[in-house]
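Morning!

This is the sequence you dropped in the shared folder:
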Amino acid sequence: MQKLSLRTAAAAAAALAVLAPAAACSSKSPASGGGDAKNAKVAFLMPDIASTRYELYDAPLFKAKMKQLCSGCSVLYQNAGADASKQQQASSVLAQGVKVIVIDPVDSAAAASIVRMAQSRDVKVIAYDRPIPKAKADYYVSFDNEKIGAMIGKSLVDHLKETKADGGILEVNGSPTDAAANLIKKGIHSSVDPSGFKLLAEYDTPGWEPAKAQQWVSGQISKFRGQIAGVVAANDGTGGASVAAFKAAGVDVPPVTGNDAELAAAQRIIAGDQYNTISKPIKIVAEAAANAAHELAQGEAPKGNATLFGTPSELFTPTVVTKDNIGKVLLGPDGALKTDKVCTSEYASACAKLGLK
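The structure's back. Tokens below.
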């Protein structure tokens, strides 16, 4: 992932500073101009397209809920494509008169300048999925990332103990510039460090890029050949990359974790290539963010259930998914995935063995 240079940050700040006040007026707060809350503009700024969820789920679900809450409101959607400097161009949505910015930051530290400049224009900011520790957003909506790390780590450790596995664990973390990844990492260590299994090595994956994770895991397979009992990977992209590394090396794939419940991860679990993932229904956080954005646009303060980095927060508890409960959690009536999309011809036999129809 590119780090935002001081020159780039300064330029972005300067661009934002010269903007005329752009926040739309709340029906309950006449402090800013640009129309009332019934016709509010809300920006939805997502971080990348490497994770398919943002284009397929987060953005459509957020837009749908906003339309339900406020038929006259509009959503300005941007995806930064994993480029922190591109996300700094939030000045464009400020110039269009948004009342609220919902942002999932590429770089949590760099995003602090977006928070400060938006708030200086009386525009509210919701940190989405990933927190922004260096600036106090108006609200934060996410699943509990530290708990996610602890849950996937414990699930793996318990499985290794049940199967009397020998060897140590590789840890494939997320992006070092992502505050949520750091929380997941902290949670993983809380489960792995006292487990009795040696942590062979760990890696912070730049930009969450699967190719970089696969390259690193490939090197560890050569270094620790025959010693790797399992891999705790922070999301399905790095988990899938880990599986690919073992297959490319021509060795058995050990239990590998994941997170996000992507379709490809569900198929790997069904096929026995990935041990677990985390179900955190995107609809929950997308709609919670829309509810909060609607409240903020009206001049109201949404009520959270926690405080993180000084920010009122709404944190949800996820669910660990393995072969044992994938049908109920991911493919059931309320599941995020459809059986016919998961159980394609390639996976039909494995699905049948699990009773998935």
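Headline: The chain has 14 helices and twelve strands.

More detail when I'm at my desk.
O.
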